[in-house]
Amino acid sequence: MSIDTRTVQNVARLARLQLSPEELDPCAEQLSRILTLMETLNGLPTEGVEPMSHAVDIRLPEREDQVCNGDQREALLACAPDTEQYHFRVPKIIE
After folding, report:
1. Predicted confidence band at 56 (pLDDT cuts at 50, 70, 90)?
2. H/E/C letters for each residue in 23-81?
3. Topology at the third CATH level for domain 5-42
4. pTM check: above 0.85
5. Domain locations in the chain as residue ranges
6. Which side of the chain, N or C, has fewer Cβ within a 10 Å radius?
7. Strands annotated E in 1-95
């Protein structure tokens, strides 16, 4: 799959990245190579292969959930730059 510089510009804008014109061509080439590799991986036979979350079959140690340092809402909210009705307030990023 081939990615052109216009697509790179659009993705960079959506990701809020500022790329110089000199960076567009190398980025397009790198993204094209990545997508070509992904197409190759999609073509591999995976029928009968069980999904796994880790290469080694291990179980993570579990512990019982315990509340610690509870009821510190005011102290935690005091660290935030902006709050509203006991919630963190962040800038809107979806247009």
Report:
1. confident
2. HHHHHHHHHHHHHHHHHHHHCCCCCCCCCCCCCCCCCCCCCCCCCCCCCCHHHHHHCCC
3. Histone, subunit A (1.10.20)
4. no
5. 5-42
6. C
7. 83-84, 87-88
